[in-house]
Write the structure tokens for this entry.
Amino acid sequence: MTLVAALLAAVTALLALDGAGPASLFRHAYLVPVVVAALRFGALGGTIAAAAAVLLSAPFVLPEIERSGLTSEASEGLMTFAVLALVGVLSGALRTRAGRHRRRYEILVAIQRTLADAAALDVALVRVRTALVPRLRMDDLALVARDGDRLVVAGGDRVAPGSLVARVLDEGAAAFVGDAGGGCRSRRAFATPLVSGGRAIGVLAVERKGEIAAEERAALEALGAHVGLALENARLASRQRQFAAELAEKISVARRELEELDRAKSAFVAIASHELRTPLTALQGFSELLALRRLPPEEVSRLAGVMRRESKRLGRIVSDLLDLSRIERGLEPALCRVPLAVEPTIAATVDVLRQGTATHPIAIECEPSLPKVAADPDALERVLTNLISNAIKYSPIGSVVRVKARALGGAVAIEVADSGRGIPAEALSRIFEPYYRVPDAVDAARGTGIGLTVVKALVEAHGGAVRVDSAPALGTRVTVVLPASQGA
Amino acid sequence: MWALDQPCAPRADRLVADTPLALLATLALGVATTGTLVALAVLPPSAVHVAGVTAGHGALLATALAWAHVHSASGVVVVGLLGLAALASGLGGLGALAYLGPALWIAWLAGRGRLTGLGLGGPVPLRGALTGALVGAFLACHLLVSVSRTLGVHVRVDRLSEVLAAVAYDLGANVLAAECFFRGALFTRAQRRWPAATAAALSTAAYVLRYLVDPLLPKSSELVVGAVFYLVLLGAINCWLLWWSQSLVPGLLSALVFFAAYRTLGSG
């Protein structure tokens, strides 16, 4: 500025010393400070410098006009006024426009760099705002973006209903307010939508105590579109990374589950082989004994009883395996449902089990006049056998296993309760999974880990439900609810 | 941030809202009555000058105060003080010092923080004040050089008392009223509706028009052109000074310096 003022003063001094009036060749030297001011300060600087040059040269031109009218010298002087004004304004305007274009490109590059890193939407907005504030030369700037149902705001706390930003978010069109407070220099506010895919995904709002010219507003609208697109790209990239991470996590979990299942199946094969081998060994041994030796009738009868029990056990295991196979294929167990009285079924099952073990007293408590259930007799027997066997296996010798039956609305509830070790809470949700065995029960008793799975499948195939209530050290109660037969 | 926090309601008030129409009508009636009485030789001819100064500058100042939402009594007081000053200045001698009355009244109001809407009352920006004084001095020098080379008028130092009386008039009436109304009130209001350049153009056009219709302005074409030239420059620059510094003081200083130089000019 000092240089421009000094140049103007120097040219004026040269004009005065020259004494050639308005046609002095030195008048062209005014172009130097005018162009310098235009290139340095833009349109405003060029205009002011041109006006100052005209003002300073006027005392050399105007007296000539007053003395001699519009002579050729005076016309040259007037032409100089016009040239100075034109050069100052035009070169300043061009300089200003070039500066704006350069700044716009710098802003776009800065935004792209800012959003290149992986970041959550709120962090990305803050970064973009930080990049924009010094470059846009605004007094205040806010960025708002939709994130699902909520609004993420950078540069403020919230979006008040009815505010300029809320209006732009609703209407999706830019809005300008010329008087947003302020005194002698009005505060202007401008908000433009951040556009992506033809819809407003947010708002860029700026405020300045001073002008926000139409050209600048148009540039801000274009910037809004760029920021919207960049934010959307960043959001998509971030979502992609998130999906990839989630997918990797799911694959890892699935692999762990598969490994666990594989281990469980291996364990199951070992256990099942053992479970199958035990009755087979008994059958083989006792049948060889019967075939090779001549035994007294009482002994033959005893051995036949043992062989009968073992073959039944073998049959039960094979049935469970077949049912599990169907379950794993997504099929329901094959049933032949008939109206069935619950109490005799319980009594028969308990009777068979009493013959097999004398270690646990089994108490039966059935309400009188229980309705019949629509059930497959064989399936119900297997359900009861599984539950009562489990109760016997996992409760201390001598403790009572209770089997109760009662009417429950249009159903019959059968409870099998023991006073055994109970099931830990964390294992309760898994006891119906195939091959799963409660860790501390593995050493306590033999088992394949498929009994309760089959029980659940059989009961649900009947349209019933199974519930387990257990407290460690107090015992377990399994409740099976079966719908009553329609004709009961 | 306003755009986030405040409700965005459409503008309801008009540009000329809050204009004290009753007071302006009273002033117009007063001027007409005085003119009639002078024509009927009931009052001396100088009464027209007193009524004109009181009504002209009083209307501008009272409107500016009303637009700044100052109590209407303040407008009446300033009109009264202007009338007294016009009367006192007609008596000669130190009578022109009475023009300090309106200036002091405005200063008192500004000191109480009631004229912040006009750009008065806040801290005086020193850079702005210095710039205003320099701009005024530049225009004043340009005026002195130009008119001495063209119109044959030059600085007269032999009538200091007249110059001081005119400066007092500028301080308490002419410059004060023009800056308070055309810049402090009109420009400030207009730039809230339109771009600052448009507001400055409106304010400056009204400012120039006010002097063109002033019966005290000499009517020779050279002087009218010169007046328009300098008033356009002064008006536009003072708008910019107010917009830039957010204070009316720099504009007041530039106008006072310029008019002080203008008052020193004389022929012969």
In short: The radius of gyration of chain A is 47 Å. Chain A has a mean pLDDT of 85. Chain A is about 55% helix and 15% strand. The interface with chain B takes residues 55-56, 58-59, 62-63, 66, 140, 142, 144, 153, 155-160, 162-167, 175, 177-181, 183-187, 189, 191, 205-207, 210-211, 213 of chain A (CB under 8 Å).
